[in-house]
Amino acid sequence: MPGLYIQAPGENIGWIMKKTLEDICSKLQQLNYKITPQRQAILKTFINKISEHLSAEEVYTIVKEDYPEIGLATVYRTLDLLVELEVLMKINLGDNRTRYELNQHDSHYHHHMICLNCGRVQEFDHDLLETLEKALTQKTGFQIIDHQLKFFGYCSDCKAAT
Amino acid sequence: MPGLYIQAPGENIGWIMKKTLEDICSKLQQLNYKITPQRQAILKTFINKISEHLSAEEVYTIVKEDYPEIGLATVYRTLDLLVELEVLMKINLGDNRTRYELNQHDSHYHHHMICLNCGRVQEFDHDLLETLEKALTQKTGFQIIDHQLKFFGYCSDCKAAT
DNA sequence: TTTCATGCAAAGGTTTTGCATACGC
DNA sequence: GCGTATGCAAAACCTTTGCATGAAA
């Protein structure tokens, strides 16, 4: 079976299909974007670091290890492009900088739990929201394409420490 | 009955109790913060503009009308203080700037629907999420204090226009 | 060869900070 | 009067842009 498989964090709800580097590159190619080593290096960063929430600066630092001549502007331009192509999505964790994450079309229900004490970000996948979305569409006529859900609170470790 | 009452936007689910300026000022006073005209002016901005999502610059512009000598740094410092005191909460609408909103403890279930076409932000209150939160706490031990939920899609107007 | 992508540096925008002054209590 | 809050200006960040060069197709 083709594709990289990752396990959903937090709980054992099965396996989620992920795009490979080749899939994304052929998408770029079809749209007449060039496959440069910089773009590949940035893509690899996300594919290797799945379920992280990287800022542009963090991507820059990671990519610089393998590709020291890359410029920060290229990182920003590539991230913008990948968001445009829906390969990545922007998220915000409240620290005044945009963060990026692989856009998992297959795991649409992807939420963050942010600990107010230690700052740890956990993920949680759940499809219960589907009911809420249906009710919302019925009542308001708003057609939902995507969502972002953040829970703020205290993680089990911090709760235990008090 | 004391308190300012506002109607929940989007649908007619009743009236929600809101904090008055006096309530918040007495909270400041109790914590030994000084009641300055600048702080009052900023608070009034949020109380008068309920259900808006103001950036620091927007607050600055509005307050300047009544209080032209105010500085932008004061606005930032006051907003930080009010977030600290849980009078306001930070939200992010994806436009690279922090926005602030009255923290409605009583209407905990407060979500945003952001139109990908026209950028309109509607609000939606719903308590269905309670079930999801309970399931999440049971499974992960994460104690939820607050949440932010964003739906991205197309509002009824934009959907009709296509 | 043509066109697009890159790197650098500068500029733009938002948010924070240092410090002397002003003001609430 | 004491101690905090303010205004101003500068600095610190994050992000975008212009332009000459370099590399992909």
Structure description:
The structure is a homodimer of 162-residue chains. Chain A has 162 residues and is an alpha+beta fold. Chain A is built from six helices and eight strands. In chain A, the strands form three sheets. The first copy, chain A, has a three-stranded antiparallel sheet. The first copy, chain A, has a three-stranded mixed sheet with strand order 7-6-8. The N and C termini of chain A lie far apart (47 Å). At the A-B interface, helix 5 and strand 8 of A face helix 5 and strand 8 of B. The structure holds a DNA duplex (25 and 25 nucleotides).
Which descriptors apply to this entry?
162 residues; three-stranded mixed sheet; 6 helices; DNA-binding
| Largest sheet: spatial strand order of chain A | 3-5-4
Multimerization status = homodimer
- Provide the gyration radius of chain A in Å: 17 Å
Q: Between the first and last Cα atoms of chain A, what is the distance in angstroms?
A: 47 Å
Succession of helices and strands of chain A: EEHHEHHEEEEHEH
Give me the number of helical elements of chain A.
6
Q: Fraction of residues of chain A in helices?
A: 25-40%
Poorly predicted regions of chain A: 1-18
Morphology call of chain A: globular
* Greatest interface (CB-CB under 8 A), with counts per chain: A-B, 39 and 39 residues
**Overall residue-averaged pLDDT value of chain A:** 77
Report the sheet with the most strands of chain A, covering strand number, pairing sense and barrel closure.
3 strands, antiparallel
Count of individual beta strands of chain A: 8
Task: Tell me the strand percentage band of chain A.
Answer: 25-35%
Structural class of chain A: alpha+beta
